[in-house]
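Chapter review: from sequence to fold.
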Amino acid sequence: MRWAAALLAFAACCGRSASVRADEPQQQPALDLTHEPRVAWDPRWRPVAPWEYAATGGVLLGSFAVLIWGPEPPDNWRGGTKFDDLLGDGVRLDDPSLADQAATVSDALYFGSMAYRLVDTLGVAGVGYGDWYLARQMAMIDLESFSVVALAMFGSQVFVGRQRPEYNERCSNPAEPCSSSSARFRSFIAGHPATVLTAAGLTCTHHAHLPLYGGGWGDALACGVMIGAAGFTGATRVLAGKHYPSDLLLGFGLGAFAGFVLPRALHYGFSDEGYYERPGPKAASARPNPAPILVRVMPWSEPSLIGVSASGIW
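The token string follows.
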């Protein structure tokens, strides 16, 4: 009878152990929730299509043809609005030497921003990481954005023909010589700020998707410095009397579209996800699985007693 009772108890405990294990969810493979920064073209992004190479080249050639061989900007618009007079006249430099220095600084930022984009794409992505496919994609995205800026900038300057603020007093006195340079009527729109802000937007967009500087503060710093350079460029152009504040606002609007919106609309998408930061599993799936409950049942006996023992791990 004792052996029969022990066997019944053993069977009951084993049944309980089997039911506990059956109710447990199956152990899932471990999920890798760590995503190492990776500099590579994500296949979810749309690469530059063949037609974009031809279109970008045609727009750039046409834009510079208008600049070099196109008609001279007409004398259509002199002076500014009340908004321009309120801001521009109050901050414009009266000292010609200081105005020339401000213009020189803006020129340096203008050409330097485009040179930096060349170094960032071909130098860092191509030479540094050895990924020339990525470098080519980045370079073509840059050229697409700059081509849009060149077309809008040179086209508006030729057809609108607004006199720069620096010529207002210089050309108001008939006794004093006034420059007949074609640059005199190229105030609308502000091309330097548009170009530098485009370079800043491209830098921020590329580095938001690609950890070119290792991810973290390095890539964020590159974006912040370029945005600061764009703001400083706009300030120096107004100080030097090259543009009105309204020209500056329109230039910044063009640069924001070409640098921030256009690359995302055509290639990256409006999400910063990529190899740099792939989306992890859903929150419910990301929780670690609970440890299984294990129950072990063993018979035992003594000279005067027979029974079973149970031990568990949870």
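Two observations follow directly from the output. The chain has a mean pLDDT of 82. DSSP finds ten helices and two strands in the chain.
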